[in-house]
């Protein structure tokens, strides 16, 4: 399955739906082996997406949650049709966004998530404040996004 489209067309959302679909039909093929600390393989594949989005998505002029990289997701099925493994390759990350953003855009979500004070111990460990204006690399454009 190849998912393409212009910015804001819904590629990321549709990719999540395709993964959920394949994971759910593969789960029907037999009981999923569940590691109590990690969940099923299906769960792990679906749960990897927020981490990828945090490090690879940013606000752009056209989309508040725009993927700034390409993703190749390979899902492997066993002979019984059961999901056996998956791997995700990322490519073409927009590296220049780390040091420069337009006024109406934003750096990668991960930087703002770290500063959100959801994990105060992380701020203490990193010896940083939660004020994005203290850091020029993340305060050149917008620092808040209503939809995120």
UniProtKB/TrEMBL annotation:
It holds the Pfam family Myosin_head. GO terms for biological process: actin filament organization. Keywords: Actin-binding, ATP-binding, Coiled coil, Motor protein, Myosin, Nucleotide-binding. Residues 1-148 form the Myosin motor domain. It comes from the Eukaryota. Coiled coil: none annotated. GO terms for cellular component: cytoplasm; membrane; myosin complex. SUPFAM superfamilies: P-loop containing nucleoside triphosphate hydrolases. One of its GO terms (molecular function) is microfilament motor activity. The keyword Transmembrane helix does not apply. ATP binds at residues 5-12. Belongs to the TRAFAC class myosin-kinesin ATPase superfamily. Myosin family. This is Cardiac muscle myosin heavy chain 6. It comes from Chromidotilapia guntheri (Guenther's mouthbrooder). The gene is myh6.
């Amino acid at each position: 399955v190849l998912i393409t489209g212009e910015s804001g067309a819904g590629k990321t959302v549709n990719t999540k739906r395709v993964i959920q679909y394949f994971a759910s039909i593969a789960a029907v093929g037999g009981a999923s082996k569940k590691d109590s600390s990690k969940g099923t393989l299906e769960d792990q594949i679906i749960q990897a997406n927020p981490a990828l989005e945090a490090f690879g998505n940013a606000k752009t002029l056209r989309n508040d949650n725009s993927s700034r990289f390409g993703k190749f997701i390979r899902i492997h099925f066993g002979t019984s049709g059961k999901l056996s493994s998956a791997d995700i390759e990322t490519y073409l990350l927009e590296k220049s966004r780390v040091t420069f953003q337009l006024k109406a855009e934003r750096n990668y979500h991960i930087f703002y998530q770290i500063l959100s004070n959801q994990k105060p111990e992380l701020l203490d460990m990193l010896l940083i404040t939660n004020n994005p204006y203290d850091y020029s690399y993340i305060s050149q454009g917008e620092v808040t996004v209503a939809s995120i």
